[in-house]
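Provenance and format

Records in this collection were gathered into a single text stream. Each protein contributes a sequence line and a token line. The two records reproduced below are adjacent in the stream.
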Amino acid sequence: MPKILTIAAMRLLDPSGRILLVRKRNTVMFMQPGGKLEVGEDPHDAVIREIEEELGLQLPPGQVHFLDQWRGPAANESNTDIHAYLYTATTALTPVAQAEIEEILWQDPVAALQRNDIAPLLRHHVLPQLVAGPGIQ
């Protein structure tokens, strides 16, 4: 039976609709910014904390909105599934790779879906919803 990690992840968009992808140090898969919840931490608080730690962005809590939840395979850990709390925000601020983040890039959702190096959460859930267009969460 796989290990289960509970995480909070951010679908961070820029004003033109591109999504921010991040790659952690010593990994090959791009994913959404975010991370594991600390003991007793609320997922909304966790995603705001992770965005500041990983990207240096201070997003006002009212700008961060809950989307939904997803369960599926982890990108970089074998025999591990994730239970992801998904949030969304749009920003014109410039993120800076910090902490364990090695690389960041803004990508058009259609182009991102064509990549071979994106995490299952992006490939099977987040990007298909973005590509489907407005009204789909």
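Adjacent record:
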Amino acid sequence: MTPPQRRRRHPRTEPPPKQVGKNPQRLYVLTGAGDQAQRAELDLVTLIVARADPPPSAQPEQAALVRLCATPLSVAEISAYLNLPYSVVTVLLTELLTAELVQARAPIVRQALPDRSLLEAVMHGLQKL
């Protein structure tokens, strides 16, 4: 019995298919042709919380963003859930922040080193066991 022969792959001559949601014109329409210099200072870990229901006049992406933020979410999570780039999400969030539909909260920063007295109390408690 002879083993099957492998066939060589030939390079495709057709162009790759277009990806849905990666259309730059669509993203430009979402963000608008307005003033791009006035963006809110948002980090990837800034928490966003909805303050009100989306108005009927809101864009579908803005309405989805407000509904999504019923519980606190970071900007990175919002970007991933909506499948939109970070820059587009920050523009949409800036518009929602000025309309006071969402609220931005700074992330909780933990101390680099815990308090020494706390560590000593834990150590003494463990030694008593």
